[in-house]
Structures are given as structure tokens and as C-alpha cells.
Amino acid sequence: MSKLVTELHIIGENGNMFDTDMEYIIPLYQRAYAWEDKQLTQLIEDINDVAEDSNYYIGSLIVSKQFGRYEVVDGQQRLTSLYLLLNCLGIKTKPTLTFACREKSNYTLRNIEELLLENRSKIDMDRIEPGIQRGIRILSHELTKDHFDRESFMEKLAKIIVYRIEVPENTDLNRYYEIMNTRGEQLEQHDILKATLMSYLSDDSEKGLFAKIWDACSDMTGYVQMHFISKNNAVREAIFGSEWNSMPPNSWQKYKKAISGTTQETTGHKICDLIEKNFKVEDDEGYVDGDVRVRFESVIEFPYFLLHTLKVYVSLYGVTHEIATSKIVDELLDDKKLLDAFNRVVSCGITDTGRIADSKEDFARGFIICLLRTRYLFDKYIIKREYANDSADGEWSLKSLYVSGQQSKKKAYYGNSEFTRSGEWKRTNDWRTKTNIMMQSALRVSYTSPKVMHWITKLLIWLSEADCKNIKNDAITKFDKVAENIAIDAVRENFFQVCSNGVYAMGVNTPHIVFNYLDYLLWNDDRNGKKKKYSDFVFEFRNSVEHWYPQNPSEGTFEQWKDGVDQFGNLCIIQRNVNSKFSNMSPEAKKSTFKDMIVKGSIKLRIMSELTEKNGDKPASLYWKERAYKAHEEEMLGHLKKACNIE
Hints:
The protein is an alpha+beta fold.
């Protein structure tokens, strides 16, 4: 790790992070302390969420060493909150945190204990800073709740790490602070990881090569090819071929030859770049269908992509933990544990060739190659959001980068990624592209948290295995089935294996993947049929499981249904922002009131609405509850059971 980066434990055997001879001073150009309930309760929750077997990174502290003390450039809100937290826990801290020219703030920090004891007679309340006093009150309240486990909390607090990062000498701190706050750019875990991995390389030219590849991959906008910029596109063509669409090589020497000898502009931003007045981040755009300008948005951010790539690397190289009973990587994709995840692989990982810790230089080279190759596959085969011209309404997209023109006049354009065998028609590929888009978008909207997007990892591993053999032969034509099998496994494990004795009554706890996979099956059957009723259907973030026949009818206007209301046949999935009245309305009232939502909603919901009709003298709601829902459930379960091979 760089000498400018220091790992600080909040508390430890030798005291706490404020037990130092160096003073932290908050300069006047920074705002006063302002964290309130939301931020402080989140801080407590983050600490309580720490796992027992690992350290937990909670943020970075950017400082500048000035006249024998640290001037806090960025991170002062968290730093002050941690100082207050330790004092609220009764942990003695040295008076090493001060505010420049803010006498009230300093007076309040020196009298935290009296404020906690409410010894108002011993302090001058007119000299108390309200923001800090409010923070003390909120933290004290959280730490004295009935369910608060102090012993467990202290054990977890001991695992919390902050990285103190010193900016280079002669940095214009006012300009740096302005940039950090207006653009929101700061040194994050992945910046520290980059520096750490680069430190494994002894040769400066190799470090430069590593940085250029890393910077290109770290920009998750657009396609990675477009982040390699050089004269006459020499670097781009050396890595991705003359058509800019070939798999990057798996040889470190080829990268050295392609990049090291050319002038290459990187997409990463150094501090000296950021503080330039004319600094500007270029947008990555291209064209489809003639003059339609498009931009692309990734479904995950770079820290999560690094975690996916680490799992790909572990799979490709058969990395295991030196302690056979321990996991080399966590199942959860937690960006706050990014450094810990890589440290475990480097420190404890073993392969067929030996311990990774004994060949860190090889790991750095191997990982950066894996990062670029995985990013290429991610761009080409994992869905994105595509925005046409200046539209704010995006759509799911599975496109590859292609090139038109000759030599220096070459330009990028985007067309459907290829999922066909050699010689098959373009319309066959368009058909398969649509199938892949629908299956992946069903997975995407089912797993909204990036921490549980394991489907991306599984697809990337399948694409990468055996030197990417699956994209070089007819196996790619079955890529949609690989994705569908992920959905099938989830439905089997979390629905069919949970429900017993033929009773499918999980209510609002029914996993979203069950509804979305069912919609995929209904859409696919319809596409292969004659009616084409659902050709307009798209997967959206419908994140609320609701009862079609309500649990609690509005003001007792119709009969409550107690014994079957949670059955799968009576459930639908809708957007969370739909009027809250939806949950208490009768089925026929929902059908008439929410026509516009239903016609664009889940296919299962559309079918339920169609089936909500009166039967003879029986009102629609009563008939639904007595008979219609059951027939609907049996039909829907039939689709799922057939697809999941359930008897």
C-alpha cells in the first residue's frame, strides 16, 4: 500500500483512531457539522452489519499535512461522527479533532461528556453548537435502545477501517475541495485497490500499462473499446482488432507491445487533472440505425464489476483458500468489502502453481488481463440501458460495437450482439437477441440490489471458461438457456422447495423471480403463437407483491377472505408507486380504476384482470374468490412446473 495511504482502525488494542500526536483540523472553507438522523442511523446500521470474519471499510479520509497537523480535505462529516460515536460509547479520545475558527464547535467537542450527563450547570449552553449537539443526541438515543447489544457492537466496531489518504504536496486544497464537492469525485476503495495492485509490479512501465487498462475498464459508460484513445486508433486496433470487436488477448507481452510504445490517453482522472479549470469528462456516445445517437448505461457500478471479475478470476484459475474449510470469496457482492475481498484472495489464495502471496506480480498481471477480457464480455453479452438521442426513457439493450469507414475516418456504431451459427439469417439473430434481452431483464428486475446480482457472475463465468470457448462456437446460440437455467434454479429452490403439500401460499413473501420468470414464459409462448397479445410487454421494476382480492377490504365493503388470500393465484406484482388504495380495493374496482397500469403491467396481472368477470348472479369478486383464482393458479403453476421440470 502507498506510503500516502494509512489503514486506521476505529478502535483497537492500542487505543482508537484519535489517539495520535497529530491533530485533525477542519478548515473554515468546509461547512459546519451537518449529519442528522438518516446518516447517523445508517452509520450505526453499517457497523451492526459487519460480519464476524472480516474487516469492513467504511470510507476514506482525505487529508493534507500542514505544519505538523492533518488538514481534513474530505470526509470531515464521517470523521466528526466517529469522534462523537466513540465519546457516546464512553471511549476516551484525545482532543485531536478541532474546527478552524469555530469556537462553538470546539467548545461542544470538549464538553460531550457533560452534555451526555445533562450537566447544564457546568457548561455554557450559549456556546454549544446545535448541529453537534443534535448529533450527540441522535447517537445517544440509538445506543440506548432496548435491543442494542453493546458487546456485539464493540466487537464489530473493532473491525471497522478508515483509509487516511494524504494528497500530494503543493495541491491547491481550495480547488480540490471544490472539485470533490461539486463533482462528487473522491478516492474510493477501488482507487486504493488500484494503487495496491500496481505496487505489486516492480517495473514503472508495467505500472503504467496496468493503470491504462484499469482506467479504461473503470469507466462503466459505453463500451470499453472507446476508452482506449490514441493516434489513428493504434491502441484500440492492437487490442481489439481492425473491426474493434475482437476478444482482447490473454498475453501480457501483447499488451506491452500494443500500449507501452504509443501515446495513450486514459479515462482516469488524477488530482492534478481534476483541479484544472478546463477539466471535462467526455461522454461516450455512438449511433444506431443511421443518425440515431445513443448512449448506454451499465446495470452495475465499477466496484461491483470488480467483485464479479474477482469471482471470474477465482473460477478460471481454480483459486481456493489455504484453509480448506474457509471460503476464498463471499457469496454477497459487498462493495464496502472490496479491499477485504481482494486481500483474502492475495493473502490466502492458492492455485495449482502455488500461493498467490508468493507471486503477487503475476496476480496483478493476470487480474488486469482478466478485468479487460471480462469487461469486453460484459459489454457485449450483459444487458444495458440504451437511451436514444436526448430521451430520458431507456430500453433494455444487448448490442455490440462495430466500426464503419476506413483508416482515420473509422467511426463506431452499435448493432445487436450475435447469437447465431455461421450462415443463419439476421432475423434469426434478432429473434435470439430479443429472447436474451427478455430473460436477462427478467433477472435484472428480480434482483434489484447489486449485492445479489449473482446471475451476472454466473453468465460471465460461462462466457469466460476454457478461454471463452462458448463464444467461439455454436454454444452461444444457447446463451438464453444458460440465463433461463439461473431463473429455473431460483424458482425451484425458493418457491417449489419452500411450498409443501401442494399449497402455494407465500403471500407477499413470494420471490419476485417467480412472477418475472412466469411472465417470461407467458411472453415466449405468446410470441411463438398466433395471437401476439403480449408483444408490447417489457420487464420493468415491479417491486411490490399485492393481493388481487385484498387482505383487508376497504372499510368492510365486502367479505374478507381469510383462508386463501395468500395463494399464488391471487397474487400479482406491480410497481411500488401505484396508488396505495390498490391494496384494499375489490378485484372489479382495481380492474376499472387501474386500466392504464394493468394494460402495461405484468402479464399475469393482465390475465387476472381479464378473468375478473361476474358469473351468473355472482359478483366478480365473489366468483374470483370461490373459483376463478384457483383455475388461474393451476394454469400458471402448470407453466412454471413444466419449465422447471416439477412433477
